[in-house]
Amino acid sequence: MKYANYNSNEDLLGWYDADIHNTIPTPNVEVDDSVWQNALDNGHNKITPAGVTSYVAYTPTTAELKEHSMAKSKIALDKTNIAMTPDGFARMSATEQNSMDSYRSDLFDNIAAGGSSTGYVPPVPAALHPVFIRFDI
């Protein structure tokens, strides 16, 4: 027999076995080994007080999406800094320079807006792919 520890949202927090663990946190529900194995095999993340397990896909909040978008934009912007030195910028063609300016502007705009509510991060323009390779970005 196994014990599943869960919270008030029925999130499955952990599995415990009385043969291994001296303390089993509460609340918990006792389940037989087949329920435990099925939950592990199928990545279940929810459990009811009756011991029924299931998988519920996580849906991030708008705030989490915005935070992720802003963080990824900051990382992307930081990565382009190496190419923005006078020497680095001079090594780019006029098309690459324009693409880099536009891309960085999009990143700045996304950061200034506090990120995107959809999690959007401006993609690297195709014209910059050779630059990213050249600068090992």
Describe the structure.
- This protein has helices spanning 33-41, 62-80, 86-90, 94-112, 129-134; strands spanning 2-6, 12-16, 28-31, 46-47, 53-54.
- The mean pLDDT is 94.
- The termini are far apart.
- The chain has 137 residues and is α+β, with helices and mostly antiparallel strands.
- A 3-stranded antiparallel beta sheet has the order 2-1-3.
- Strand 4 (46-47) and strand 5 (53-54) form a beta hairpin.
- The radius of gyration is 24 Å and the shape is elongated.
- The longest helix has 19 residues, at 62-80.
- The protein has 2 domains: 2-54, no CATH class; 62-134, no CATH class.
How many DSSP-defined strands? 5
Shape: elongated
* Sheet with most strands: 3 strands, antiparallel
- SSE topology string: EEEHEEHHHH
The separation of the N and C termini measures: 51 Å
**What is the residue-mean pLDDT, rounded to a whole number?**
94
Radius of gyration: 24 Å
How many domains would you count in the coordinates?
2
- Helix/strand-derived category reads alpha+beta
The fraction of residues assigned to DSSP E strands is 5-15%
- How large is the count of helical segments? 5
Helical percent range? 40-55%
Low-confidence stretches: none
The strand line-up of the biggest sheet is 2-1-3
Helices and strands in order:
Layout (H helix, E strand, L loop, with lengths): L1 E5 L5 E5 L11 E4 L1 H9 L4 E2 L5 E2 L7 H19 L5 H5 L3 H19 L16 H6 L3
Antiparallel strand pairs: 1-2, 1-3, 4-5
Helix pairs in contact: 2-4
